Input
Amino acid sequence: MEHLFFQIDENNPSEFLTAYHSETLSIDWSLCDQRTLMRHIAPLTPWLGFKHDDVPLAQSLSQYSGFSGWKVEKIWIGDLREAHEGLALSPAATIAKHTASFLQAWLYYGLLESVLGKKIKISYMMRPNENDEELLYSRNLHFCLRQIVHKWRLADEATKRDMNSHITKELRLVQTWVSRLAAWSQESIRTRRDIQYPGFVDLVAQVLPAIVRLAESIIETAIYAFKGVVVENISGWQIPDSVAVARRRKMREAQWCDFQIRLLEETTNESTMEWCINQDIKQDPTGHDDCTPLQCFRNNVPSGTNPQQHRDPGCQCSALMPDLRELERILLAGGIPLVSVTFRDAKMELIVHAFSQADPHNYTAISHVWVDGMGGLPNQGLLECQVRWLDKVVTQLPQSTGGGKKFWIDTLCIPRQPKKVYYLALDRIRDVYIYASNTLVADRLIRTCSPEASTETLYAHIYMSAWMQRMWTYEEAVLSRNLIFVLKGDNFHPYSLKTHPSMMHTVSVVWRALAAQLNRLRAKKSHFNIGHIYRAFRWRLTNATQEEFLSVAGMLDLDTSSLMEAEGDERTRDFWKMLGNLPLDIPILDGPKLPIEGFKWAPKTMMYPNKTEISTDVSDHQAYCYEDGLRGTYMFIPFSQVLNGSRDHTNSIFLIWVTGSKQNTLVSDDRMMLRVYCTESWPMSPDHMPFDSLIIGDPKRTIPSRGKWFPAAALLRKPDSENTVASNGNVELKCAYVGRVLVERLQVGEVLAPEPTVMFEGSGYAREDTTGQWMSKKLCIT
Output
């Protein structure tokens, strides 16, 4: 963790030069200037004591295991006693300790040595604390990773390609092992591990998070160093269940909201998660007692309530009312109402104006969330203290941004009755933010951030804010000309995509993780599509669910008014039909589906917290929505028989042998085993759903590699009489959407092992549920 907080003295390059010129990296901490050192940063990672210094420098992770005498293929299947010749007669607990210590050294020091090409002594990345406990200490990480940047700049094109390929290959191997070892902490597997090798799972759980954080920094270094080259941003790193559960408990005790915890877990990474915990950047802890991992109830203000709060607890001012008739007149005339503040006889009043096409950018749009105290309806007005503050900050905006003193805020400008006027106001929201000079974001958490804060700290305040969790605020941000945040002391921060981390570029993992989320607020209009909206909407909430696809249609410049003619699921169906061209992987999404025939593959809502993403690359939008279903060419696996799936243990896991098909030249492996898991969306026994095929949403239609997990959709083929035959003789299969599944492609060594292993029953005991074939096939999914 120390590398995420250590501030390097740029005027003193001695430590970098030492690291750059040394063939072997080591350090004597007692000889260091103690002023340049820092305390260990939690979470602490013990060094388990493997004799890493005795292992010769290896050029790859596979070489490291061979040099050290370990058979990693035995560890993979859980046969730890056979993993090293010196363990044959050792007690089980000793085997557990030695194996865990090897894995730590291999996946931490071995990985770092492999990407640097230098021997790294234990001391360089390990420092005892004041109690003489040997702990990993990553303060020096930037000094050694910086060498990758310099090597890249001096390398020819062939060497650059080799460097990129080598780092990617090593990181993929580490991720495969981390996922495997993390899976062993699941209760059903852990019990068997603890009986065979007591303490092994706990020891591994202690060291895996530090390995993940190291890998994340190496990826960040590669992205920074290899500019102009596509670098695979390997993500989705797993940590053991026990670590995640303990961390959630600790965060709840520190009054974190369950929804915010899950948001960080599933949208950022291990480094960012722990950095945010250390910084303690979270929303107001009050009001989260009923929150769940799926929803933050504090921020979900019920419709029809008046959540307004005075800016000062002692204030007793009353609400100011806009002229409701003038609001209605302007909206019926096709305009946009604005408000400004004036004083008559020392009394504050609101004046309602009509938006002028002659001077389209002479106002400021306010973007806020109701829970922060400025929500409500025009017929309730807005508290005078809140209006006074809005008038002040709007007036104080830099003159260069324009805007004048007029502003738009939903509380004063969207009447709820009559319904016709309300829908007109909703239909105009797109224009409100497009034409405004500025959009001013007023959020309680963001306003606690100092204008002198680091980029990472500012980004964390924005990302953890209630404003980032609401549906309409995303449209408001995306459509805005200038997005300006109000910070502490009513200072302003104009949002820009061109920012720089305060951390060193080689370890700026937190900055990139948070920037990736916030940059969606300012997506380029020419590239903006449903994939961007889905990625943002997954973690947003609304109590006006019927308005979700009105907001989405507004962002995509579709005919919002025609969608208002339908309600409920019919409106959602009409939206998908109106959009027409869709990402190929849309049937793979998690979450509730429409109950309408021909659209059972279609998301009922996009506001469903989950990790799954759909492609934002328009070239991947190869599916087409029609009245009778979704058409596209998919990587398709038809089975030789029908399976009945449910989410209980009896019928939730299936083993399927899959072979290549002559129709698909992309298949390189002759035969492989897939393990298919029915997810929580499937019914419990005795209920079940039949399925006889799978599709994968990859538009490139490539075969997943060994050991890989991937989502898929289960289908049921319809009778041949419903298929369509094209003029060239190709058949379009019609298939009913059944449900989402997770699939694991098993490793060859594991499949061939006759006896049970830690993750497989053994080929001598496993049942084969069915067989299938990989093929590329044109489908109509209903």
The chain has four domains: 2-235, 319-442, 530-626, 629-781.
